[in-house]
Amino acid sequence: MTNLQTMTCEAFHPHVGQDFLLSLTDGSCVLKLLEASAIGTGARDGGAFSLLWQGPVTPALHQGTYEMTHEKLGEMALFLVPVAQKDAGFQYEAVFT
Questions:
Q1: What number of other Cβ atoms are within 10 A of residue 96's Cβ?
Q2: Is 90 exceeded by the pLDDT of residue 3?
Q3: Where does the DUF6916 domain lie (predicted)?
């Protein structure tokens, strides 16, 4: 599993526009990384940043921790919060502080 304690915003920048596979109890869905944004200084080694994903219309995910996989970054568990509903589906954010 990827160590998110020291992960930086810059590590995600090359993967904006790429798909991440999200594991669900009854299957999986794909989230596309839309943004990786620095949000100031943080107490963590990798600095503070947020990641924004676009998900499908269904399933609509609840706030919670989800296991995700990316071909280069590997497996990670992220706390996702639904932040917007668009015609294409829902957007989710993970914040690292």
A1: 20
A2: no
A3: 7-96
